[in-house]
Design goal:
Layout: E1 9-10, E2 15-19, E3 25-28, E4 33-40, E5 43-48, E6 54-57, H1 85-92, E7 110-117, E8 123-129, H2 139-150, E9 156-163, H3 176-181
Parallel strand pairs: 8-9
Antiparallel strand pairs: 1-4, 2-3, 2-6, 4-5, 5-6, 7-8
Length: 185
Amino acid sequence: MTIPNSDMIILSRDCEAVQIPSGVQTKLSQGTRLTITQSLGGSYTVVPTSGGMFRITNKDADALGLQTGGAGQKPSAVSIGPVDEIEIWQQLKTCFDPEIPVNIVDLGLIYDMKVSPLSHGGSRVDVKMTLTAQGCGMGPSIASDARAKILNVPGVMEADVQVVWDPPWNQSMISADGRARMGMA
């Protein structure tokens, strides 16, 4: 997908957004003037002229004037069969710390993932993750993005992403792919 250069874009319709770094869900209104500053993992970091920083997911890319193949959108017919854990990991690999161009899985930020069946069908996914530093203000935003992407997996009806600090993260947790992308290999 080609992203427009840093020219100003005007939202063609209202769309959902997540405020960065708080992770608070909000709505950006049609006509909002903004610039796309980053595109990673099927989401777009945008900065409106009125201030602030927000993440818009791929499902609302058309409001930015972008065409997508629909990746990352939950199918209209929700499967209530077994959840594919590989697909959950693939979704988590589309989540990025906006300050580091390596996904949260390859950064070693995911400590635990548990899939549990729900009595009414479908599954619940619980994830424990950390951040590269306790002072990182991006935690709520990254956790919110991870939760939203997990909920895109067919059969997932509930998801919870908790930020934990034990054990403390360190660079040895970065995967070989992550190290290569960061020039550490």
